[in-house]
Amino acid sequence: MDKRVPVTTAEPGEAAPGPEELLRRVAGGDEAAFEALYDVIAGPVMGVVVRVLRDRAQAEEVTQEVLLEVWRQAARYEEDRAAALSWVLMIAHRRAVDRVRSHQAALDRDDRAGRMDVRRPFDQVSEATFANVDQRRVRRCLGALTDLQRESIVLAYYNGYTYREVGVVLKTPPGTVKTRIRDGLIRLRDCLGVTS
Predict the structure, then answer these.
(1) H or E element at residue 161
(2) At residue 8, does pLDDT exceed 50?
(3) Which residues of 73-109 are buried (b: 16+ CB within 10 A; e: fewer)?
C-alpha cells in the first residue's frame, strides 16, 4: 500500500498547488508533483491532440509523448511567458501537427514512389543475358568475315575511323575500304539474321 500523501492534498484552509507550482516541482524531479500535474493536464492535452489528429489511437500515443516531454522539459518552463497549462497545450498542439505532417510526408513519398514505378519493370539479369548472347553472336559472325572485311569494320565502327582513315591504316584506297565494309556488313546482316 502506497503511504505517500498526494501533492494536491492541502492542509485545511490551504489551497492545492496550481499547475505552475506543480510544474516547478516537476522540474526538480518530484514524481508526486508530476502525478498531480498529470491529473490536471492529461484531459486537456488529449482533447487538443484528438482535435488535430482525429484518430484516437494516434492521439493516445501523441498524448503520451507530450506528457513525457513535459516531464523531461519542465525546467524550460518560464512562468512569466505563459501559464503552465498554455505551455503544455502548446507542446501538445506542436506534437500533434508534427504527427500530421509526418504522416502526410509518408503518404507523399509513397505516392511519388508509386508514380515512378509505372514504367515496365527492368530485369537486369535477363537484359545482361540478352546483351551477352548478342555480343557472342556478333563476335561469331565477325569471325566468319575475311580478315580484310573484319579489320575494316572494326576500325570504322569500333574505333570510329572514317573510310579515308581506315584506308591510311590498312594502306588501301578509300573505294576499296568502302567495298570491304559494305560486303562485310551484308555478310554480318545475313549471319545475324537481320531483315531490312
Answers:
(1) none
(2) no
(3) ebeebeeeeeebbebbbebbbebbeebbeeeeeeeee
